[in-house]
Amino acid sequence: MIWNDIIFCVVDTETTGTDPFGGDRIIEIAAVPVFKGKIFSNRAFHSLVNPHVRIPALIQKVHGISNEEVEEAPDMGTVYERFRDYVKGTVLVFHNANFDLTFLDMMAKETRNFPLTNAYIDTLDISQEVFGRPHSLKWLCEKLGIRDRIEHRALSDALVTAKVFVRLVKLLGEHKVDDFIRKKWG
Questions:
Q1: What does the pLDDT look like over 7-20, one tens digit per residue?
Q2: In angstroms, rounded to a whole number, what is the distance separating the alpha carbons of residues 37 and 22?
Q3: φ and ψ of 102, to 5 deg
Q4: Angstrom distance (rounded) from CA 42 to CA 120
Q5: DSSP assignments along 76-87, one per residue
């Protein structure tokens, strides 16, 4: 059974906007490991990223990350390589995987690195299986009794998503987790 054999890394990013093809970039990334249903927040990966583009004022209001904060942060290449090494051999977990994976692919391309090839799970898919349709992270928190606030910061939202993931798997049944694992590019 994969649930007991694999380390999952729940990933979240914050970005300068919603369009990586229009120049928006990752400015914060986090990954929280989950093994055998236990969340290891003390082993989380977290980094701000200097995107070398301005963060629009409207977007700064969403997540509270300023241009000044990311000025001294490591650049995309450095963060991407550290992140790729951190998640090597894990199954990634996202809430709305297409969003984060598109930004991560753009980050790999711009830094002349290979894209991630990890298998991944999208909690939207599990939500659909458990509740009949995909639901927002906020809705899932309310339904599952998770009181954490969604802050639009990568580390705190990755922790919230990890809690949602663990509870969804319990509702779904651990033996069905492998049914939701997608292969990157597959």
A1: 999 999 999 999 99
A2: 38
A3: -65, -45
A4: 22
A5: HHHHHHHHHHHH
Evaluate if residue 150 carries a pLDDT over 90. no
When pLDDT is averaged across residues 154-166 and rounded to a whole number, the result is 98
Q: How many residues are there in the chain? A: 186
Q: Which two tokens stand for residue 74?
A: 């490591």
Q: Which helix (H) or strand (E) holds 7?
A: strand 7-15
Residue 152 near residue 63, CB atoms below 8 Å: yes
Closest of 69, 41, 66 to residue 166, by C-alpha: 41
The DSSP secondary-structure symbol of 50 reads B
Catalytically annotated residues: 152
Among 117, 100, 168, 120, which residue's Cα sits nearest to residue 140? Answer: 168
Compare 159 and 2 and report the one with higher pLDDT. 159
Contact 9, 86 (CB under 8 A): yes
Mean pLDDT of 153-174: 96
| Entry pTM | 0.95
Question: What residue type is assigned to position 5 of the chain?
Answer: D
